[in-house]
Amino acid sequence: MKLPLQAICPYFAMFPEEFARQHIAAYSKSGDWIYDPFCGRGTSILQALLLGRNAAGSDINPVAFCVSQAKARRPQKLRIVKRIRELEELLANENPTLLDRYCAQLPAFFRRAFYPTTLRELLFLRKGLDWRNRHADCFITALILGSLHGEMDKSHAYFSNQMPRTICLKPEYSLRFWDKQRLFPKKRRVFEMLRNKADYRLKNLPDYPSGTVRQIDARKAAKHFPNLHNRISLMITSPPYLNVTRYEEDQWLRLWFLGGAAKPTYGTISKDDRHSSPKLYWAFLEDSWRGVAPLLKDSARIVIRLGASGLCEEEMEAQLENSVRSAFPAAKLLKPPKRSSIVGRQTRNFLPSSSGCLYELDFVFEVGP
Hints:
Elements: H1 17-27, E1 33-36, H2 43-50, E2 54-58, H3 62-72, H4 77-92, H5 96-105, H6 108-113, H7 116-128, H8 135-147, H9 171-181, H10 190-202, E3 212-214, H11 221-224, E4 232-237, H12 247-250, H13 252-257, H14 278-292, E5 296-307, H15 313-327, E6 332-333, E7 338-341, E8 359-366
Parallel strand pairs: 1-2, 1-4, 2-3, 4-5
Antiparallel strand pairs: 5-8, 6-8, 7-8
Helix pairs in contact: 1-2, 3-8, 4-8, 4-10, 5-7, 14-15
């Protein structure tokens, strides 16, 4: 069954819920601990909890952390609705001149990306949501991140002018694109949309226990999860792909909403979100597996979905096996890697000359004694 909460944010859409659910069901049992060191939008966390497993995850990117954390605890609908109403009442008492001043101080991109009243509401929520410390605020923030930008010609579910929903292009490119296409943002009532989105996402959502998510580097996982040493039965993950995307740049607008800079940044959050050097990339993965190794049982299984640009399947398979065995010397593949093609990349509509990952490989390892 496809659950509404899963679509809370389209970020990292190469890791669908069906993939996570199938492998969690196949390689773990009720009550087992599941861990994802690159948890992205929290797909594996949510699916593990819904299947009666215990779940933990981590990601260094604040967007991924926020969205995963929102899913790790089942939101209470009444609390979410009450908090949205409270925020709307606070905005009604806010000094509009002050908000307009904030809008005027932003780069031109923002005033072309959002309708004036929409931008004012988003700025207020950016300032007022305590998403790191209040679960209701975290869930509302995750809803906003999922709707912050997207294709307005196909859906009224997005706050922005015409953009891809998965990534945010650079401001200069976006402004040129909008000028060329003569596109302007539509008025969106943010609070009304949030109420509708919360109702849809939480409708018929079953009860499930809480999981644990941390905003950390995977290489330091053992340090930040001391209570999970030798308790993980299944690690399921999809690490950053070789030479495919730069998450900090691609998610810059969502990062801005979480308190970041009003422009793309590079290497501020992590210097490892895009590697173009295969040598450095495989070294990064080796260090990551070593960082999580103390958490896994000797009988644990490891499921990895991996893609790359400019790398043949044979080399990817050989290099990934070597990286895993650097941390788990007795690890062995349980079956040949499964290949799947990537089709219909959304960014081609905005950047026709772009190229990226054309296929993914799914690996299943047994850690061994």
